[in-house]
# Entry
Amino acid sequence: KRLNTLVLRLKRTGAKLIWGTTTPICSELELNYRKFKGKGIIDSAIELKYLNSAARVMEEHNIEVNDLHAFMSPKLKKYALATNNVHFTKDGYRELGKQVANAIEKSIKAEEKN
# Structure
């Protein structure tokens, strides 16, 4: 509901919107947090629920999606700082930046054709 409200507010600005999904959760960190605190903040099932909910909102509003989750998932071992850290190496952030820039460039080119 909040995401829908945010999308409606942003659409009123007239800006071209592109939704960038979250990158994958840090399952080891969440597992350790669950053991320490008694429950985790998020697990892969909840992660998928959030990703799917956001996707439905973006589809409803015809907003492009830059799936950074799918982009980075197979590259986590190479670019994650550690299995218990949601941050990336400099090269990992560079790859994410390229992915974001490519999505923006693709969107601009599509707009120019119209």
